[in-house]
Amino acid sequence: MVKAYDRVLAARSADKISIQDLVAGITDDFMELHGDRAYSDDPAVYAGIGTIAGQSVTITSIQKGNDTDENIERHFGSAEPSGYRKALRLMKQAEKFNRPIINLINTPGAYPGMDAEYKGQGYMIAQSIMQGLKLKVPYISVIVGEGGSGGALALAVGDTVWALEDSIYSVLSPEGYATILWKDSSKAAEAAEQMQLTPKELLDNEIIDKIIPEVKDAKSMQNFKEALIEKINELNKLPKEELLAQRHERYRKFN
Amino acid sequence: MKNNKSEETKDLQTLMDKVPDHLFIKCPVCEENFYNKKLGEYKLCPNCGYGFRLGAQERINLTVDEFTPIDSEISAPKRFLGDEKYAGKLEKSKKATDLNESVQTGFAKIGDTEFALGVMDSRFIMGSLGTATGEKLARLFEQATERNLPVVVFSCSGGARMQEGIHSLMQMAKVSQAVSDHAEKGLLYISVLTDPTTGGVTASYAMEGDINISEPHTLIGFAGRRVIEKTIQQRPPKDFQRAETLLKNGFLDAIVKRDQMKSVLAKLLAWN
Ligand SMILES: [Zn+2]
Questions:
Q1: Closest chain A CA to residue B205
Q2: How does the cofactor attach, per the note (chain B) (predicted)?
Q3: What average pLDDT score do residues A156-185 get?
């Protein structure tokens, strides 16, 4: 059995497929769209429009960098309020044009910076969650690597939430958990065991709906793409009221 | 002369140390020391107007004319109680607050105006957002939606409840959904962010009001100060994550002193 912390390390591994490669792999064509229309364009959020098997989709994602420079620019995959504003803008646009939404998530959490606080990190995450839950189009979220806290949830309130085999989704990092509960960040491995953050545990707890075999070659990419196409087709058939009612039930049941 | 003074100070300090703590209070914001009788019923710092933290029941008594609690019996689901340390914390919090969860919910009146009211209590595991906290708030919004009533929520919270892990995170979605359903019916939600409102509560229902108000000097933020200091390797200024700064940056509609809160709420409820 793989230890929980091994899963944490695998989720963070530099060998993990990049979001841009993943988007290129599942789409026939894709164009990145920029900007939050307020003051900025957060490079941690990679988003745009593309087609999957001829169907137009909006994809928004939180991405880490492929090298140090990119990682610094993208705050290691931590979005700022501007990033969430961009994502929400494009999700609302998807709703306007009746396009399904696919959100790909690889973030340790929203960026904990001074400017992020000044520009309303909490407010933008709150709005992404609240407005996201009401979008009248199929909305699929996939935890690709790390799904860190509210910063991940902001893009993960869809009709279905999936996770790649080597991914984690948690209320905070195992290091943070160990620091808060035991005042010792070196106990991260112990924390990971307790936190139920692995895909298997998340599935058992109905936090996610499906585990996707790790995407690492053409075959696994094709498998992921086919799963998306099948789900989009299924959700597209639902009348809007039914789509929203099912989504409502999905989030209401957490008690 | 200098020596004398420092000795005098020392004597005073020795004297002060002998005075029971509760007689003098130090304001955590302006650091002024004052005689506790000056706090008054609203527990305001006489110097800077900071409102000292209140329990949920105290807050309710000061803010509304009538209150009928609902769902008081709801508390953390049994499946979490295997964690003995957590179970102990819950028991301690229940005793300290006379509540079963970190929020008290119910229906209130100011004058003849009825509304749904939720008040969080920071003494209950830092006012953290547990599964039962989320359940009580979701039900409050749902009942208000059914009865066509406005909602007022006084938030104060350290954020997600670590001991309930990812289930705590899901409450942000569950409550936000209930807020949104309430909003879709054209009903008013006033969010009052009180000291401190942070983490997952700031990143969900506390920042989803039609009107978001706060009290002077209230701490409001998403990320914790220590995490930010570690990330950016510098110390944020004193007014960082304070209500006045959020007002200036456009994230609050108003800052209302506690002794004015009731009349401001009455006015806003009447206008909507
Ligand atoms: Zn003061």
A1: A126
A2: Binds 1 zinc ion per subunit.
A3: 94
pLDDT, one tens digit per residue, over B68-95 is: 999 999 999 999 999 999 999 999 999 9
Q: Other CB atoms closer than 10 Å to residue B74's CB: what's the count?
A: 18
Is A122 close to B176, i.e. CB distance below 8 A? no
Q: What pLDDT digit, counting tens, does each position of A96-114 carry?
A: 999 999 999 999 999 999 9
Question: Under an 8 A CB cutoff, do B174 and A254 touch?
Answer: yes
- What's the whole-number mean pLDDT along residues A166-182? 92
Cβ–Cβ of B165/A197 closer than 8 Å? Answer: yes
| Predicted-complex ipTM score | 0.97
% of chain A beyond a pLDDT of 90:
91
C-alpha B216 to ligand 1 mean position (Å): 10
Domains delineated in chain A: 11-172+195-252 (3.90.226.10)
**Which tokens in the block code for residue A71?**
């990682």
Query: Which of B135, B227, B231 minimises the CB distance to A255?
Result: B135
Residues A180, B216: Cα–Cα separation, whole Å: 28
- Judge whether residue B5 has pLDDT over 80: no
d(CA B268, CA B266) in angstroms, rounded, equals: 6
The alpha carbon of residue B24 is apart from the nearest alpha carbon of chain A, in Å, by 31
Per the structure, the count of domains in chain B is 2
Axis crossing angle, helix B261-271 with helix B56-63, rounded to the nearest 10 = 70
Distance A195 CA to ligand 1 centre (A): 40
Residues B119 and B41 in one domain: no
Size of chain A in residues: 255
Same structural domain for residues B31 and B96?
no
Do B80 and B110 reside in the same domain of the chain? yes
Question: pLDDT-derived band of residue B20, with 50, 70 and 90 as boundaries?
Answer: low
Whether B207 and A127 lie within 8 Å, measured CB to CB: yes
Distance from the Cα of B262 to chain A's closest Cα (Å) equals 25
Q: Which amino acid is residue B152, in one-letter code?
A: V
Q: Which residues pair with B44 in a beta bridge?
A: B51
Q: Tell me, yes or no, if B206 comes closer than 8 A to chain A by beta carbon.
A: yes
Residues of the binding site of B for Zn(2+): 27, 30, 45, 48
- Read off the pLDDT of each residue in B214-233 and give the average, rounded to a whole number: 94
The range of the structural domain enclosing residue B64 comes to 54-271
pLDDT at A190 exceeding the cut of 70:
yes
Report the percentage of chain B scoring pLDDT > 90: 86
Same domain, B19 and B84: no
A120/B250 CB distance under 8 A: yes
Give me the count of residues in chain B.
272
